[in-house]
Every structure is written in C-alpha cells, then in structure tokens.
Amino acid sequence: MSTRSESVWASASPAPAVLRAGAILDALARSRGRALTPAQLAAAAGDIPRASVVNVCAALHDRDLVRAVDGGFVLGPGLLRLSQAYLDALDPVRAFKEQMGRLGDREETLQLATMEGADVVYLAVHEGTVLLRPTSKAGSRLPVTCTALGKAMLAGVPEDDVRALLADGEPFAARTSWSITALDPLLADLRAVRTAGHAVDDQEAAEGIVCVAATVPGSATDGQPFAVSSSLLKSQATPDRVAAVADLIKDVVRGMAEGN
C-alpha cells in the first residue's frame, strides 16, 4: 500500500471539516447506538466547537451518514452502503463469495475475517443451511487471542512480532473460562497451529462452541492476513467432524488463494 509520502497528494493538507466529520462518526460508533447531543459530541470528538458539530452533522445528515433522533444524533444508514461497497471491493471478500457460490448448499456457516492490531474483524459471513448462533456479523470484532480466526492469522506472523503485538495486553481478556489469557500458552498453541495447518478454539470465545479456522495462503506475507472459519456445537465436535470441517476450510482458502 502506498503512503502519503510516496503519492501524488503528499503535499495535500487534510481539510479540517472532514477530520471533524471523521471524529464525530468515530464518537457515534463508540456510543454503540446511544444518541449523543451536540455538546456530548463536541467533547467526545476532541473538543470540537459545538457550532461546528451542528454544521458537520447537518452535512452528514444530508448524506444519510447520521440520523437526527430525540436526544441528538446516531449513525445513519448511508454508512452501511459505503461499508458494503468497501467490502465488495476487497479482493478476499470477492474471492470468498466466489468460493461460497461454488460450494452449493451446505450446513456449515463460514466466516471471513482479517486482523487489525489485536482484533479479529469479520468481513463476510456465508450462512449455512443449519444456523448456529452466535454468528458474528460483518464489521464485528473479537480478540485475536481467543478465536480460531485470530490464532490462524497469528500463526503466520513471526513469533517476535506476536510478542510485540500482545505483550502489553497480558492478561488477555477472557470471554470464557477456557480463554487463553497469557502469552506463553498462546505461543505454544500457535506452534501447534503451524504444524496442523489450522487453528481450533475449544469454547475459548463462546461457551459450548468449537471453532475451526485456516488462513488464506500468502495473505500474511502480502501484509494483510485473512482467514476463514466455521463453528460447531461442542457436543458435535468429534475429532472426525473437526477434521472434516478443517479440510473444507482449507479447500476454501486454497481456492481463494489460487483464484479457482
């Protein structure tokens, strides 16, 4: 990916109004659906003048990027249109959807994700014929440390880089009593992932759920890792069934990498 210093717009100066709009949208995203007043937005977005908040929100409202509700503003439906366009433009998302189209009807739900910092970010979900909850939606996040997707992607990262990424986060957040909360056990798990070619989280992200994941070959070396996962009820996660799901996922990620 090119940086600003390498591009034709290296001398450009970011427009203050656009920076304020981004800060306002970030503040509304952090509010998780709770309306924020102009005064609250002014504080949450970095002490922007209240008059500027109102003006920026008026412009965002015209583009359906925010909605005016009782109590202030919330995110608007126009963001969904933009986020879907962004996701559709990502080659791995297109490749994932193409592979899902070739699979036909199957009971498994498969999910595509990438890694941002110490988070797994879900990009696309293909629902199977047997719905299994919880299924993460596109855009949702989970810690890399307690998900099969996260471990699959971390396994493609040099161990020193994993240490640098996660060392300050110990103890890691525990979503269940089975979650890995320390770096050394996680690193040992990642070594096993490299040997097996796939990762498993055994009730580490959700009680009663076993998840299997494999990374898209070559994606980590290109600078942005991607991985595909599927989940099973713990009661159905026999060794044979886990192996079959792992084989399915490996076929999908191999097809994504090869473009066939």
TrEMBL record:
Keyword Ligase appears in the UniProt entry: no
Record flagged with keyword Secreted: no
Entry keyword set: DNA-binding, Transcription, Transcription regulation
Domain IclR-ED residue range list: 78-260
A GO biological process held by the record: negative regulation of DNA-templated transcription
Domain HTH iclR-type: 15-77
InterPro entries: GAF-like_dom_sf, HTH_MetabolicPath_Reg, Tscrpt_reg_IclR_C, Tscrpt_reg_IclR_N, WH-like_DNA-bd_sf, WH_DNA-bd_sf
Pfam families assigned: HTH_IclR, IclR_C
Family annotation (SMART domains): HTH_ICLR (SM00346)
Gene Ontology terms for molecular function: DNA binding; DNA-binding transcription factor activity
Classification via PANTHER family: HELIX-TURN-HELIX TRANSCRIPTIONAL REGULATOR, ICLR FAMILY (PTHR30136), HTH-TYPE TRANSCRIPTIONAL REPRESSOR ALLR (PTHR30136:SF24)
Protein name listed in UniProt: IclR family transcriptional regulator
